[in-house]
Specification:
This protein is mainly alpha-helical. 71% of the residues lie in helices and 1% in strands. It contains 15 helices and two strands. The chain has a two-stranded antiparallel sheet.
Length: 320
């Protein structure tokens, strides 16, 4: 009797526990007629968007991959050549130059415009007189046609009558042919990209700042934190999700720059401002090498995918 009372109690086997769990679980109910109607209505509403994406996004992407494996010049049927276009792209010094220019343009415009946008957003998030007018003024370049903006900057950079050289002459500084020199053309184009890209980034940051709890700033003020300390310890950490989003879309937009280059420099001088998208345009619509242009587009897509994955890994957990 004593042995039976002092004997250790063995836990039930795992299989028995699973069997009891399965028995205790309630059977799945079939969706009601009303729910089925709602699901059908939902699918009917989604179908137009799915068709639009399929026709205007999925099919062109598949066609681009297919054409990249052919020799196609619009006038003759495509001829299968395999990966020959990719070998040509890899060995093309002009496309390598365009890739390098795009990387330099991206790593110059994205961080600078983001930093300026954060400062402006924080300033315009304060209670200012005519606050909305200031916000509209900074956002205006974003909604203005890029060609029109490029024409204005083309006049600013004009070596004879441009505003920039006039200002430099006023202060006794030497003038310069900004868009005609290979040393300054890329930086001049990048400055236009920085100026135009501030508006959208500023707007996103302002929207993110609206969600920051004011109690955090009040608690920091009670602890004696300075304005700079609040900015580094509260504002920037709370803006991390917005920063990740802005960073990704800014990289994608920078790698797709075209209008500014087309109007300001036409890729010159000596390919100093030729970008990847502009080289795709030249291959397709000036040289009529559609297969080569498709391979260049696939390469651009791969670079963007890698950049997005790297930025995602760098900010992992910050955007949550």
């Amino acid at each position: 009797m004593t042995d039976s009372l002092t004997a250790p109690v063995r836990p039930p086997a795992a299989g028995a526990w699973l069997d009891r769990t399965k028995k205790a679980s309630t059977p799945k109910r079939r969706p009601s007629k009303a729910n089925r109607k709602l699901r059908r209505a939902g699918w009917l509403m989604v179908i137009p968007a799915v068709l639009w994406l399929g026709i205007w996004v999925a099919l062109p992407v598949v066609a681009t991959f297919g054409l990249s494996l052919t020799d196609y010049n619009v006038f003759n049927p495509p001829k299968w050549i395999g990966f020959e276009n990719y070998v040509t792209v890899w060995n093309d010094p002009v496309f390598r130059k365009a890739t390098w220019n795009t990387v330099v343009y991206t790593f110059w415009t994205v961080p600078v415009s983001m930093a300026i946008a954060v400062v402006i957003a924080v300033a315009l998030n304060q209670k200012l007189r005519a606050q909305n007018w200031y916000r509209a003024a900074f956002f205006l370049p974003q909604v203005t046609a890029t060609v029109a903006i490029a024409m204005v900057w083309l006049w600013i950079y004009n070596p004879q009558q441009g505003l920039l050289n006039a200002a430099m002459s006023f202060f006794g500084l030497p003038t310069h042919a900004w868009l005609e020199s290979s040393d300054t053309a890329l930086w001049a184009v990048s400055l236009v990209g920085v100026w135009q890209g501030i508006g959208m980034k500023m707007l996103i940051y302002i929207a993110a700042l609206q969600n920051v709890d004011e109690a955090l700033y009040e608690a920091a003020s009670i602890d004696g934190a300075s304005t700079a300390r609040k900015f580094w310890s509260i504002t920037l950490p709370m803006l991390k999700p917005a920063t990740f989003f802005v960073f990704v879309i800014s990289i994608i937009g920078a790698f797709q720059v075209f209008d500014q280059v087309y109007v300001l420099t036409d890729g010159g001088p000596a390919n100093a401002t030729t970008m990847m998208t502009y080289e795709v345009y030249r291959s397709a619509f000036q040289n009529f090498k559609m297969g080569l242009a498709s391979a260049q587009s696939v390469f651009l897509f791969a670079v963007l995918l890698v950049m997005t994955v790297i930025s995602r890994r760098m900010t992992k957990g910050d955007e949550a």
